[in-house]
Structure formats: C-alpha cells, structure tokens
Amino acid sequence: CVLCGRTDDCPEKYGEKSTYLEYNLTVHYYCLLMSSGIWQRGQEDEGIYGFLITDIRKEVNRAAKLKCNICKKKGASIGCVAPKCKRSYHFPCGVQKECIFQFMEDFRSYCWEHKPVQKFSVKGSREPSQCIICLELVEQLPLYSVLKSPCCKNAWFHRECLQYHALSAGVFFFRCSVCNNKDKFQKEMLRMGIHIPEKDASWELEENAYQELLQCYQHCDIRRCLCKKGRDYNEPDSKWEIKRCQCCGSRGTHLACSSMKSWEQNWECVECRSIFAKSGNYSKQQKRSLATSEKTGGTTCLLEEPSPKCPRPSSGSQHSFLLQSPKIMCQSNVTPCSRLEFPASNRMTMSLSPLMANRSLSMRKKYLSQQRREVSNILKELKLQVNTKTTRLNINTKNIWKSALKGFRQRNFSPTNAIEIKFTGCRNRLTTDTSEGSKHRFFKLLMLNLENSSLFEGSSLKNLTLDSQALKENLYFEAGRMMAVSLVHGGPSLGFFSKTLFDCLVYGPENVKPALEDVADVGVAQTIKMIKYASSLSSLQSAVHDCYEFLAAAGCLRPVTTLCDKNMLVNDILTFHVIKRIISPLESFRQGLKTLGVLEKMHLHPDAFSSIFCHEPETLSAETLCDLFTIHCSSDVNKVEGADFWMGYLQDVESGESVVTLEDILLFATGCSFLPPIGFDPEPTVKFLHIRYPVGNRLRNCLELPLTKTYEQFKKKMEFTIRNTLKVERE
C-alpha cells in the first residue's frame, strides 16, 4: 500500500486492497478514506473510489515527510483531530495501538489518548457477560475490544464480532441484535469506530439465495409412509400424488398414506389442526373430514396420523393408543371414529384399574420388545459394512475415555474395521482377549463414561451441555462417533437420552418443543417457574424485572402487557436454553452419529431407535434367557429332562434362591453381561453333554451343561462353576 507501506490483505481490518496497474498504485481502502490531507473531489467512477490520482500522489508526498508516532517510520498520513495533538500514524499502526477511526462525516481519527470512550455504570455488575454474537464471555470493562449497546441495558459485544457483523449486514440491516434498534445503535457504533458499509446485506446479494422459496413442498410426512419408492416420490393423478396441507403448505402426504380417494379432499397437518382446535374453529372441519371419509369409504387416519414434529408411537392399533397415555380413553374394541365422539372430560377422568394398568404395562413391554427386535435387524444390516481387517485399541482401565479417544483418533482406525481390545493398567499382565467379551466390556465402560461426562446434563434422561472447551476439541463429534460404532459393533443400549434430545437428532431442533423437565440448571429452572406460575400481571412483571439480565443475554426480552404473555416468554426461554444454546454441540454430535449410517437409519426408524436411546435396557429375566438360548441335544440325551432342570434353575436364580445372578449366567456363557441391541453372533445355545461341570464356550456363545440325575446336583454344579470362574476373572 502506497500510504501505509504494508502488504497485508485483510479486508476486515484495512479494507479492500486494490492494485491499479495503469496508475502503478496499490492502496488499502481504509488508508485512503482516513488520510487527513485528501478529499473525494471526483465522481465515483473517477480515479480510485472518487479520489483523483493526482490528489493521491500529493497525499503520498505529504505523508512521506511525517514520521509515525508508533512505528517511527515515514509515511504517516493520518493525524489525530484533537486540538493541539500532533500525533500522526499509519492506519494499521493506529488499529494496533487502539486508535478510533470514525467512518462518517469528515472521517475523523483519534489517537489512543483522545479517543472517545463509552460510559459504563459504576453500579452495574462487573461479572463477565456473554457476547450477543459469539456467545463467548466478555468483560464488562471500558476496553477497546469491548462495546456496549446504547439501547439495551445488558447487551455486550466483542468489537471484532460487531465489525464482522456490520460488514455482513450493511447499513440497511445492521442493528441491535437484542431489541432491533437501528438509528441509536448505528450512531453509537459509528462514533466508536465500527465501519458500516453502504451496501445491501451479504445474504441479499447471494445469487439464488431464495431459490428454495420457489419450490413446492414434495414430501410425505406420515409416520408410516406406504410408498415403496420413498417419501419424495410424487406421481400426479395417482394414489401416490402428494397432497399438501391446505393451511400451511409445509407438510404433505401421499393420498394413499392418508386413505384419501381424491385429490379434491381437504387435508390439514396435525400442527394446523391443533391451532384450529385451540381457536375453537376445528369442530366444523372435523365434522367435514369425518363426513368426507364416510362418503369415500375411507378411515379417519387423515385425522390420526402422528406429526413429524411431535413424534409418538406409530402403530395405528388400539394397543399403541394405550401406550400413549396413562389414562384410559375408551375400551379396546372402540374404533378411532367412535373414540373421537366422546367428550374430552369423559376420556380423561377415567383412571386405570389395577388390571388395566398391568395390561397397559405388559403391552408397553411387548411394544418395546418389538421395536428392539426391529433395531437388531437394522444394526445387523449396518454391520455388513464391517470387514475382516482388525484394529487394536489399547485401553487403560484407569482412564477409559482418554485411551478410547486416543484409539479412535489414531491414523489406522476405521469404523468399518473389526475392533480388538487389549486392556492395560491392570495389576496382572493381560493378553489380548480374542473373544467378544473384552469388546463388550470396553463399550459398556465407555458408554457409562460418556453418560456421566460433562458433555451431558440431567439426572436420568439427559440433554447435551454447552462446553466450549469440548466443542473446541471436537469431543461432541467423537462422542457421537463412539456411540454409533458401539451400537454396530455390539455395544449396549444407551437408554439415557431425553425425548427432546432424541427428537432434535431425528426431526431437527426447529421441530422440537422442549419442556421444563429438560432444564438441568436449577437457577434457570427456578426462573422459568417464577414466570410460568405468576398469578397476576404485576407478579409476572416483577419476575421479568428480577431476571432482566438473564433474559437480555438469552435474547428473550419481550414486552409484557398481559398475563398470557408469560406462555410465549416461557417457550422462548426453554427454546433458547435447551435447544438454541447447544446448536453447535448438537450439530457436531449429529455428524458423529452419521458414522456407519446410524443417524440415517434413526431418521427412517425413529420409534425403533427410541427404544434403545430413550428407554432403560431390557431387564434380564428367566423368560428372557430361556428365549435367548436355543437348546440342542445329541440323540442319546433326554432333552426334556435337561430342559426342565435348566428352566427350573433360571427361575430359582430370578427369585433370589441362588448365589449367582442372571447376569452372571449370561457373562459366563457369552462374555457379555448385557443384551446388546444388535444381538449375539452366533446366537446363544445350550447343549446337554456327558460332562462333569458346565463349560462356557464364549467363542460360540454356547453353554455346555452336564447331565445329572437330580436337580440338586445340577444346581450345585452350576453355582460352583459359575461363581468360581467369574471370581477368578474379576480378580
């Protein structure tokens, strides 16, 4: 640059650097604007930005006689405008020394001693606040790098963040990020040296930026889409034509998926119908839809399909209906149509009898078992990607997370390789266990470590936290990748995800409505409760005033004029704290879960994967183990007698009449103390042989049992062998 003498090309700091070969000139835009002895005497298309070439050369000659008070070199073209101040400096030197350059009116410049300073309240809090733009901490001190909004009490910015925002937004869209004030905010920021270019916003100048708005929505959002060619398939004038919601147009369904016979039938998505219901305008539409369905001979599934925003169990039977609510709404033989005819008060006041409660619980367990079987088949399909090449991970038992992270980040690690685990850090020297046992143990310890790590918050059902250090180190991605690899390679069910976190992963955070139970921070939860349970307008306004700073930092400040405003305010706080605050960790975590195609399968089978992400793992029972192990006998063995002893022993263990547990039996036979969602490979078997003591063949997941004359002998041998074998292993 002919004015500052630097080669730096940093448009954010020094403006655009342009070279004009015909004039043999290179100049920074800001150096040209702020030079004290030059004015725009030409038109915009004359010279350089309206500065005549002769004037620029005169300014270069003038500056060549002035020494910079900062770097002590010649060419200082900018001078402080304060009276009696003789300081001169280059533009980059002034930026480095924290001078203020005002990009308005006469383009004044102030040195580090005479620069304008914002006035901060002495009584205000001196604790760090969040920058409204980057959400990092910012000190509430009169520093050059810190700027305060003139229109909001507790809105703080990093100067660098605000400058980047101004360059992107331009003069038409640059305003306070909290209250949207434009005039007062821009005036103060110009005074404090923020350059606001006179241009349209960068997002407005992007070519075809809004092209997607010209596209019609073509996607079937019904939970159980019947089209074999996919949800995006649309064939006009057929049953696979996609019909959009007549109210919002942002949801769709195949005609066949909602049992519509004609495209002329009206169809509304669940979100729009809920709005109609709250406004009292839905009854007429409901009657019309029912009448239409009767005429066409269809069912009411166009009224009953679950929303992609509010996922529910997807079965259409009355069994799934009982699973959705702890209240009984009607008898099991009532059809969906007749169910709609009951008043809401009659449906919701009939509590479950003990018999019906047990039945509902039994049906819920049956439903979860079906979903887990579906997950098992999906994970087995994903495991086909795993090849025979082996990657060994050296795992320190004293620091599972650190050694696992090191192993997953090593150059030769690939999720599609078979995994071999070698535990180190033990008292005894261990050789590599080639069976699946060490791998099962590793994944169980790793998932337990993740559950209790700083990446998640909550008591039993957890959400992601905002840990800036973990985000910087990409730990959320690694956690997601570890969980995906664990599920495909035979790890345990997770079971600690909240419904909100799971729905954010599957349906997207914009389609999820969090609840108060998702807030783990006691202080934030208390703030929300104060607002939510305010009984009068004055108490609501008092609660808002008490947490003013928190609401301002969260961007949730809104005028409170009626008591009803509290509902929108609570929703804003919940959405910010539970979802918007952790958008970056969530996206990083989602990228990790894409490993081996796990997240894609979650999108296609949300109900199935919910059974292993959001529900506690299946509890072992005698019936579960009896179904898990297939009995094989040789021709000379009495299968019935051996099976009776085996099943009787399982029942004794379950009832506590044994020194071993069901987990011990499973561990003895397979090397795994839990039921992996993917299942066992090969499937566990029981063999009755002429042997003295039981043998657990973990390579084949085979439990070889002795033939005995009495049940007491069988039980004694089982307990002696299993207890002592596991005792030696644990030691």
From TrEMBL:
It comes from Nothoprocta ornata. Its main location: nucleus. This is G2E3 ligase. InterPro entries: EPHD (IPR034732), HECT_dom (IPR000569), Hect_E3_ubiquitin_ligase (IPR035983), PHD-type_Zinc_Finger (IPR051188), PHD_PHF7/G2E3-like (IPR059102), PHF7/G2E3_ePHD (IPR042013), Znf_FYVE_PHD (IPR011011), Znf_PHD (IPR001965). Transmembrane segments: none annotated. One of its GO terms (molecular function) is ligase activity. Pathway: Protein modification; protein ubiquitination. Keywords: Ligase, Metal-binding, Nucleus, Transferase, Ubl conjugation pathway, Zinc, Zinc-finger. One of its GO terms (cellular component) is nucleus. Residues 1-115 form the PHD-type domain. It comes from the Eukaryota. SUPFAM superfamilies: FYVE/PHD zinc finger, Hect, E3 ligase catalytic domain. Residues 298-318 are annotated as: Disordered. PANTHER family: G2_M PHASE-SPECIFIC E3 UBIQUITIN-PROTEIN LIGASE, PHD FINGER PROTEIN. It is found in: Nucleus.
